[in-house]
Amino acid sequence: MAKPSFRLQKLLRRTRFLLFFLSAAYLMTGSLLLLQRARVALPPGPRAPGPLQALPVAAVALGVGLLDSRALRAPRVSPDLPLSVDVPRGPPAQARPGPRWLRTRNPELRQPRRGWFHHFVGDPQGPPALRPEAPGPAIGGRGTYVGCFSDSGRDRTLKGAVFFDLRKMTVSHCQDACAERSYVYAGLEAGAECYCGNRLPVTSVGPEACNHECKGEKGSACGGVGRLSVYRVQELQPGSRKREWRTVTYRGCFRLPENGTHTFPDSLLQPNATAEACSGFCSQKEFPLAVLRGQECYCAYPTPQFSLRDAVDSSLCGRGPEALRQAEYCEVYQTPVQDTRCTDRRFLPTKSKVFVALSSFPGAGNTWVRHLIEHATGFYTGSYYFDGTLYNKGFKGEKDHWRSQRTICVKTHESGRREIEMFDSAILLIRNPYRSLVAEFNRKCAGHLGYAADRNWKSKEWPDFVNSYAAWWSSHVLDWLRYGKRLLVVHYEDLRRSLVPTLRDMVAFLNVSVSEERLLCVENNKEGSFWRRGRRPHDPEPFTPEMRALIDGYIRTVDRALREHGGAGLPGEYVPR
Questions:
Q1: How far apart are CA 366 and CA 338, in angstroms?
Q2: What H or E segment, with its residue span, contains residue 121?
């Protein structure tokens, strides 16, 4: 009996050794095949640019796996696709650079890993990949190609209106936008940015410098880094031009500066001068303000000496049947030209030592405040989430990792001790809960610029929304007051009423020095691009008595907490009477 048992044990030992040997051989074979595939997919020479060639480095580095469980009600995106990038449907997708273990979420580790991997498997004798033909000027369309020009953030070549579409920019889209605003030239930069203007420098640069394709039009040149592809646009037909850009906006009657009209950079003396003629002249000169006094037309920017804050009765400027024009007063009109003294933005040159949050309840105007902060400081703002719509319209900090500390502050709607204590300081933005709830419900049902349909307001969805979100409005403020390390409380209504003083306090809190001229430029461009326009299709305050009783209770709770925290409490329009 002992002999068969011994033979069985010997057989089992051999079988175990054989299984171990086969497993090791299998793993080694798989590793060799993996390295061989990587050797083919990653030639050491210059690679042919794929569909992500024109994306910024931050967009490519952070486009994979950016969203995680921290994202609050953000749309879930597949971790295998770059965020906010159209997937090519024709030719097959380009091979991924390296195996899956190389794709780390941490952008600071990704590049060192790739460098080591390429050095290990690279073939110094491999042939370089062929490059496609460089993009060229668009053929057809409304405009005529002029050339490639240099451009910089501080001193723009085209000083008119500015537009972004980081996903679908085309040459014709930029040309049409500039023609509608009566500009002569349309310039495209970095594949996604559109600039308008009426004057060009004398010299241009070589056409090879404008080597970026348009994001929405393959094969067409849309400038480059610091380079503009410029087209001379044809004026739209009078019947097709949008009326909103043809209409001159009356700003009011104002007293002239103490030193008279000498502070105005340009002027025109014309008999029977009209507001339209003066505005057209100043538009051609690329000034945002047209100042009219009798037969004298002046072009200007808002300045500390001419800030347009103290309007007087229009009769002093000769308006009305019994008005008498006074020599020291003038009429001011807004031209279609955008004030570009505050449109240049960039990431912080070095990592910020203070991690600042821009915290608010959804629907409190966070996007608008980010617009103000970016234009006032000249630095991008980041976001705890990712919103492709905001990124495509110029909020480039959306795709930067929220902890990169390359942005001046980070948008968040989070509450709770752990999420709050991650930040060193915060601007806490508060808005009337009645307005916030309506704004957030509109956004959830119809996006950033739309209105919820009547069926949404009449359904059960609206009462359920109020019952859950009203409590969140209260708990969000209370948590930040309790756990926030250093807070600046800002009320949305104060920004609307007194923008420059409130914005000045916010910029000082962010430890950024800003000139008064730049703040006035922000005030002149305060509306931004994310406002719901048009008539509301529903009752503006669809709250039942039960809803009002619930919300008013939360308002009293937050008002009491703000006063106990040493503040002034909520504005009087919040507190129920």
A1: 23
A2: helix 107-121
**Residue bearing tokens 């241009």:** 204
Instruction: Evaluate whether 573 touches 432 at the Cβ level (below 8 Å).
Output: yes
- Count of C-beta atoms within a 10 Å radius of residue 449: 14
Structure tokens at 190: 């970095």
> Which of 366 and 68 is assigned the larger pLDDT?
366
Instruction: Give the phi and the psi of residue 360 in degrees, each rounded to 5.
Output: -160, 160
Residue pair 255/329 in contact by the 8 Å Cβ criterion = yes
Tokens of 349: 């040159």
pLDDT value, residue 154: 65
pLDDT tens track for 366-375: 999 999 999 9
Q: How far apart are alpha carbons 82 and 52 in whole angstroms? A: 9
Do the Cβ atoms of 500 and 520 come closer than 8 Å? yes
Is the distance from CB of 530 to CB of 369 less than 8 angstroms? no
Instruction: Please give the order of strands across the beta sheet that includes 289-293.
Output: 249-255, 329-334, 289-293, 296-300, 266-269
What are the b/e assignments for 409-439, b being 16+ CB within 10 Å?
bbbbbbbeeebbeebebbbbbbbbbbbbbbb
Tell me the pLDDT tens digit for each residue of 520-543: 999 988 877 666 655 565 565 689
Distance between CA atoms of residues 408 and 391, nearest Å: 16
C-beta separation of 522 from 503 below 8 A: yes
3-state secondary structure of 18: helix
Rg (CA), the chain: 30
Cα–Cα distance for residue pair 430/433, rounded to 1 Å: 8
- Please state, in angstroms and as integers, the Cα–Cα distance from residue 542 to each residue in 441, 533, 534, 538, following that order: 11, 19, 18, 8
Question: Are the beta carbons of 281 and 297 closer than 8 angstroms?
Answer: yes
Distance CA 525, CA 366 (A): 17
How distant, in Å, are the alpha carbons of 270, 290, 306, 386 from that of 325?
Answer: 18, 18, 19, 54
What is the DSSP secondary structure assignment for residue 150, as one 8-state letter?
A: E
Q: Are 221 and 213 in contact (CB under 8 A)?
A: yes
Q: Terminal CA-to-CA distance of the chain, rounded, Å? A: 99
Rounded-to-integer distance, Cα 559 and Cα 573, Å: 12
| Beta carbons of 184 and 231 less than 8 angstroms apart | no
Measuring CA to CA, which residue among 535, 371, 541, 522 is closest to residue 466? 541
- Taking phi over 0 as left and psi of -120 to 50 as alpha, with beta for the rest, 127 belongs to beta
| CA count, 13 A, side-chain hemisphere, 436 | 28
Report whether 233 contacts 220 (CB < 8 A). Answer: no
The gap from C-alpha 41 to its chain's centroid, in whole angstroms, comes to: 35
Question: Mean per-residue pLDDT for 390-398?
Answer: 86
What is the DSSP code (8-state) at residue 76? Answer: P
Query: Considering Cα of 106, then 108, then 114, then 120, what sign does the dihedral take?
Result: negative
> What is the rounded distance in angstroms from the CA atom of residue 311 to the CA atom of residue 308?
7
pLDDT at 243: 41
pTM of the predicted model, to two decimals? 0.69
Match 């690279």 to its residue by tokens. 122
Residues 6 or more apart in contact with residue 282 via CB below 8 angstroms = 266, 289, 290, 297, 299, 335, 337
